[in-house]
Amino acid sequence: WQIFGSEELSAEAPALAERIAEPSLALHPEDAFRLNVKEGSRVEMTLAERPVHLLVTITPATLPGTAGLTM
Question: Is 64 within 8 Å of 33 (Cβ atoms)?
Fold first, then answer.
C-alpha cells in the first residue's frame, strides 16, 4: 500500500522514509510461472535507461499480460 506523503520529496523525510514500502512489481500468477519468477524474488528492470531492482509480488488482482509497478 502507498501511504499519504510518500511522493518523491516527502519520502526524504526520515519519519516517512522508514514507513514507505520498497518498490515492487506485481505479476499475475500465470505470468510469474511463465517467467519463472517466485513471490519475494527480485527482478531488474530498466526504467528511463536506469536499472531498477524490484521485489516481486504475485497476485491474481493483476491482469494476465500486465504488471503493476509501485515506486
Answer: no
Rg of the Cα trace of the chain? Answer: 13
Which conformational region is residue 16 in: left (phi greater than 0), alpha (psi within -120 to 50 degrees), or beta?
alpha
pLDDT tens per residue across span 10-45: 667 777 677 777 889 999 999 999 999 999 999 999
User: Is beta strand 24-27 parallel, antiparallel or unpaired with respect to 50-58?
Assistant: parallel
SS3 assignment, position 29: helix
pTM to 2 decimal places: 0.72
